[in-house]
Amino acid sequence: MANLALFCFVLDFPRGVFLKKFIGNISASLFLAMVAIYLSGATSPVYAQEKNASKPVVVPLFRHIDPTKKDPDFKAYQVIRFSVTDDFPPFSYRTGNGALTGFNIAVANAMCRILRVECLFSVKPFDQANKAIENKEADAVLTGLAETAETTKTLAFTRPYYRFSARFAVRKISTIKTNNTRAMAGKRLGAIAGTQHATFLKDTFRRSKLREFDNADDAFEGLRTGAVDALFGDSLQLMFWITGAKSKDCCRFVGDAYVDQKTFSQPMAIAVGADNKKLRDLLDHALDRLQISGRYSKIFLQYFPLSPWSDGDSKPKNAT
């Protein structure tokens, strides 16, 4: 099948470009299977707890909160217009009956409740959505747009509310119990060719044997059939494969996530106009309140069946 333009949770993140939009080697059948998980309503809070009942999902605190920071101007907005896409699961997508939903949508709605303002969503294709502020069609962009030298010419960004990570997956029968370089020495490690995950393995796990696969389907099948001892890749991509039908319940995560802020651990933030400090302060205030109250963690559990970061209470490993 022809390759598809996929989303940041499915593939490696190229440096200095949009998080979401690029071409990757992954089959249409895999993409459709991942979307089907959402349309079936499988990722409910109950599902998240049941799939990980013995090891509850641990949601890290992404935001450093300054308790001395002054409150923003709450009267600055009565309505906040968000520009979003509807083809970015699990962050923003349509349900089977056409309703707009997703992690980003739920976070935005919760923020608006805190700020006591009305939330409006304008749905557009990715490229058009990111120009909505410039075209005066929206106040904020919630699409996974990366904060780069180019985008900051016209936009300002909130502090991150999510950061991508990478993890190792192994077969359930594997005796591998951790994922440091010593434990992986001599092991056959897999990654998708040409990705930052493959480069990371080459640079960091030099005593291991690297096997690069042409696409995600081949990489997943390589792990399932034992062609490699462990597979390294984006935490969300691996999560939805592990919990999906194609894995045939073969595999599990091992060890905690790796974070490399220069490459595959790009942050997610909300973009506003470069000179719109009032709105940026409002959104940051609401995001802080979501974290403090624990509401952020509850929203997360509605859309993710496993922890992308850890099997326990430990923090992700910094690669740099």
Spatial arrangement of strands, main beta sheet: 13-12-14-11-15-18
Main sheet attributes: strand count, strand direction, barrel closure? 6 strands, mixed
Number of helices: 10
Count of structural domains = 2
What average pLDDT do the residues reach?
82
Q: Any low-confidence stretches, pLDDT <50, length ≥5?
A: 1-54
Which fold name fills CATH's third level, the topology of the largest domain? D-Maltodextrin-Binding Protein, domain 2
> Helical content, roughly?
25-40%
The CATH architecture of the largest domain is 3-Layer(aba) Sandwich
| Beta fraction | 15-25%
Instruction: Count all strands and give the number.
Output: 18
What is the N-to-C order of secondary-structure elements (H for helix, E for strand)? EEHHEEEEHEHEEEEHEHEHEHEEEHHE
Report the top-level CATH class of the largest domain.
Alpha Beta
Shape: elongated
**Could you tell me how far the N terminus lies from the C terminus, measured between alpha carbons in angstroms?**
37 Å
User: Which structural class is indicated by helix and strand composition?
Assistant: alpha/beta
CATH superfamily of the largest domain: Periplasmic binding protein-like II
Over the alpha carbons, how many angstroms does the gyration radius reach?
A: 20 Å
InterPro entries: Solute-binding_3/MltF_N (IPR001638)
Organism: hydrothermal vent metagenome
Pfam family, one: SBP_bac_3
Protein name: Solute-binding protein family 3/N-terminal domain-containing protein
